[in-house]
Amino acid sequence: MSVLIQHGTVVNAGGSVKADVLIEGERIVAVAAGLDPAGHTVVDATGLLVMPGGIDVHTHLDMPFGGTTSADDYFTGTRAAAVGGTTTVFDFALQSHGHTLGDALTVWRGKAAGKACIDYGLHMAITDLNPHGGSEHETLREMDAMVAEGITTFKLFMAYPNVLMIDDGLMFRVMQHAAELKALCLIHAENGAAIDVIVAQALAEGKTAPHFHALTRSTQAEAEATHRAIALAEMAGASVYIVHLSNTDSLRELKAAQARGLKALAETCTQYLVLSLEEQMPGKSFDEAKYVFTPPLRSKTNHAPLWEALADGSLSVVSTDHCPFRFEDQKALGKDDFTKIPNGGPGIENRLQLLWHYGVNAGLLTPERFVELTSSAPAKIFGLPQKGQIAAGFDADVLLWNPNAEYTISAATQAMNTDYSMFEGWTVKGNASKVYSRGKLIVDEGRFVGEAGYGRFLRTEANAGGMA
Ligand SMILES: [Zn+2]
């Protein structure tokens, strides 16, 4: 079973070239001009770009939050990812208080089993160092077992006190041990304690509408935690990756750390690049609950600096933080109190479309940088040496991208399992034409032709975020 993709333009992070791509089984075996088509299934890619499938390193599928569960499970979520050109996701397994990391791994592998349509890795969120009490810090020892299982990234929350947050001392202990293991620490950077005070004051003043979710979580709260996380990582000798960096105040802290040569990376997410407080959350109606996620939408003035940081390398990755909830029966839980609105938005399907349209078409990113941000850098940072490139020996996760295809985003036609789109009615130019996952055609002109359970669990290599 071999497939020859002919007459396309191969786009890798390092450059573009007119070349044919030969796939045998699950791997790419040759990339060269004028390959002999005899004996192969031939696919004509004239006018198309041949790129490595997208890697979305930040998703929350089938995740419990505030008494409900995110609306995409591993089937519908990875199907939607595939339709949008993404062939690998990293989801977050969450340790519950009183339970071990092993328990969380069992639960999340169970959620994915028989459902994932594309390959997936897991990050492990640490919330409790002593799940059985005492002072032993048994979770630190368990980190070794996780790395042995191929889970080499640990998420730490500086927000959500009493739920997910761990204090600075415990975070520091995890960072010290992560440094020994060459594991990467992923940080949700917001000052949760200060935010909780501000939120309580807002509620006491009767400020219960959705946009107060955004107004009570300032850019300073995010920037302070970004600074603190990087400082603690420096003390511990650990590599750190700030998730969903949303604004210029935090960006300033990141750039200052990078200028000093510290091992600090960050991602931003699609929504922070194209949506804003002014446009989506003016404080007019409960409809704005559709945009309640954390960190919240920021002022438009943050857009240009974030795009610049993507172009100049200060920001390394664009992910989605896909965490979908239906408006009708899930977001509505917070009708009278914004703190009860499940946090998150649907975006896994639209990441490449939006980044291409508003980044590449607008002249802010080159096609090569687009590939780097959406696939190659995630593969490198998160320890997947077999993915993120169109070259012989790599997994045949291949995206045929039509830069001229126009597509209008709508909840009515999307694959995501939500009753709204954050980008309803937006027309973008550039869309996935065909998508291969390890050599298997899984999307054909917008139609999903893959299958539940095809996706494999990916064991990642501990490489300190590629910064060791
Ligand atoms: Zn998240």
Automatic annotation (TrEMBL):
Keywords attached to this entry: Hydrolase, Metal-binding
Ranges for domain Amidohydrolase-related: 49-441
Keyword Hydrolase: yes
Cofactors, names only: Zn(2+)
GO MF entry, a single one: hydrolase activity, acting on carbon-nitrogen (but not peptide) bonds, in cyclic amides
Family named by the database record: Belongs to the metallo-dependent hydrolases superfamily. Hydantoinase/dihydropyrimidinase family.
Protein name as it appears in the record: Dihydropyrimidinase
Species this protein is from: Granulicella tundricola (strain ATCC BAA-1859 / DSM 23138 / MP5ACTX9)
Organism lineage string: Bacteria, Pseudomonadati, Acidobacteriota, Terriglobia, Terriglobales
